[in-house]
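Hi F.,

I've been meaning to write this up properly since the lab meeting, where we talked about keeping a consistent format for the predictions we share between groups. The idea is simple: the sequence comes first, exactly as it goes in, then the structure tokens exactly as they come out, then a line or two of notes. No screenshots and no reformatting. I'm using this chain as the first example so we have something concrete to point to.
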Amino acid sequence: MGERGRGCCPPMDLMRSEPMQLLQLIIPVESAHLAVSYIGDHGLIQFKDLNAEKSPFQRTYAIQIKRCGEMARKLRFFRDQMSKAGLTPTARSATQAITSLDDLEVKLGDLEAELVEINANGEKLQRSYNELAEYKLVLQKAGDFFNSALSSAEAQHREYASNQGGESLETPLLSEQETFADPSKQVKLGFITGLVPRDKSMAFERILFRATRGNVFLKQATVDEPVIDPVSGEKVRKEKAIYHTLNMLSIDVTKKCLVAEGWSPVFATKEIQDALHRATHDSNSQVDSIFQVLRTREMPPTYFRTNKFTSAFQEIVDAYGVAKYQEANPGVFTIVTFPFLFAVMFGDWGHGICLLLATLYFIIREKKLSSQKLGDIMEMTFGGRYVIMLMALFSIYTGLIYNEFSPVPFELFAPSAYVCRDPACRDATTVGLIKARETYPFGVDPAWHGTRSELPFLNSLKMKMSILLGVAQMNLGIILSYFNARFFKNSLNTWFQFIPQMIFLNSLFGYLSVLIIIKWCTGSKADLYHVMIYMFLSPTDELGENELFPGQKTVQIVLLLLALVSVPWMLLPKPFLLKMQHDRHHGESYAPLPDAEESLQSEANHDSHGHEEFEFSEIFVHQLIHTIEFVLGAVSNTASYLRLWALSLAHSELSSVFYEKVLLLAWGYNNIIILIVGIIIFICATVGVLLVMETLSAFLHALRLHWVEFQNKFYEGDGYKFYPFSFALLDNEDE
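Output, unedited:
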């Protein structure tokens, strides 16, 4: 549905799916066909099957569906015949004049019978033509054989006549009269000509040799001309979809009205009502359709309005699981966080420009490419063109921060702050550099590249940066769980899930992030590994030279106690409070039905135990598993973000290897041929490994970080998509 309906509804909450409503439509039979057709033009309702207990053959419109299927078969037959003849279908001018389905059925039947007869006559004519063409080729080749044999015989005859005066070794031992006098010595020769496929000529020759016991003279010639054997070898689809939908509607006892139920976005109410009124008017029905909203506890489908830019990011989230109705949508944050985390691993502004140029090709030609049938890989790449564009832009940004251009550094923003220790710079890569100017204004100073301390410096920088990014994204996930609990009015999740999780995560890894920032700001040489390990093993010991701020030991003891308290806080209270809630409502047979929107929101989050047996042990074990999973996951997820550092290092080192061991090595030979070969190898390695394999690797790792480390903090993903009845979706489906 895309952006449809945006003008007729209030500003939407980007984090929540569209509010849905369950509709009941009572439509007169005479206007039902047009009503469903008009609704399908807009794609507004996901109809429910009210005849699920009936087989397809027991439904009201089974005969109409069969007729539409037969007409669809005829149209496919026409399309195949047109493609075989090299014709392209034109506009729907032929079918626009036919307004009645019966007239169209008759017209298609006549055209099919006529085309079948034309095909039969065409096949007979083609077969006769091919047979005559074969005869012509046989006569031509056989004539060539006999003409050459006649010329050879005449030459031999002239030679024999010239030598008749004396005996020759080639003179026949028997005269012609003697040969014909004895019938037993007569030799009868025959011949046969024909065409044999070239790939079967050797097999044919062996068969002749065996059949005649070698008494055969075979002569063959190649036929250059190809010889062809006779070949043995919009829509009516809308109507079929309409009748399929009508079969999902139930008919009332008077058989004068059809009853439909289905989900629809709230903003589409007016459009649906207008479609029903228009169908009543166009069908000349005397009774208008009835439109009413039903109250239900059933979970509605999830529908997010997207466009060509945001749809690919939403698909990334939906591949993990469709959001539950009104659940916070990670797709909003994925638009920024996904390409950024990819760029942290891929950071190289030269490679980023290459990705951007490739993506711009798809974006500039998207209208033409969208109408073509692409291969699987190209189709997937084209669908994610805007994702790749943002990945490329963020890669350029992080590449500028890393100061890497495959992998040459540049002084883009200012001269380097460092100079060599001696004027000749002989020891620049061994002894090191001295600072002579102000700090480089943006990103890594280019002088770091190529020095002895480059790898330790970049390792420390990227590893600590990975931890900061990971803790920030995990905190975002926990904060979103709070907004979910607040939106669904679930106070238990607020007090016994959000708060203890925030305390546990930030008491340990949030504190580590603060220490990293303090160390960067102060230039301290404190060992953070030592600080975090002995925070657990010996929390009361003095920190000594590892102390980063006054009172650090006291702060660590408090944080450690908070982390220990948060574990039973997550585990124990919630199962007992759920048991108390169940006991308080136990024995109530009926309860007033709440308002529709309130009911949907409460049902979306609360487990509806109803009057089923409350299994306290099952709830407690589930909470125990959830607590253990979060505690262990907090450690493993933080470590998982170190992949940002690892893949960034791998990309940088591979770039250096290809540049130094291929391109510079080939340049050093001072040979144009070696240089050209080196450039070709460098380009192939850069494209194949760094721009294809590394891109795919970083994409998959960013995907995992979003699905596991980020979304499992708040995202349930157990909803189902909103699939409205829409004619626009028929073009993407197989008939």
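Notes:
The longest helix spans residues 101-162.
The CA atoms of residues 335 and 681 lie 36 Å apart.

If this format works for you, I'll send the rest the same way.

G.
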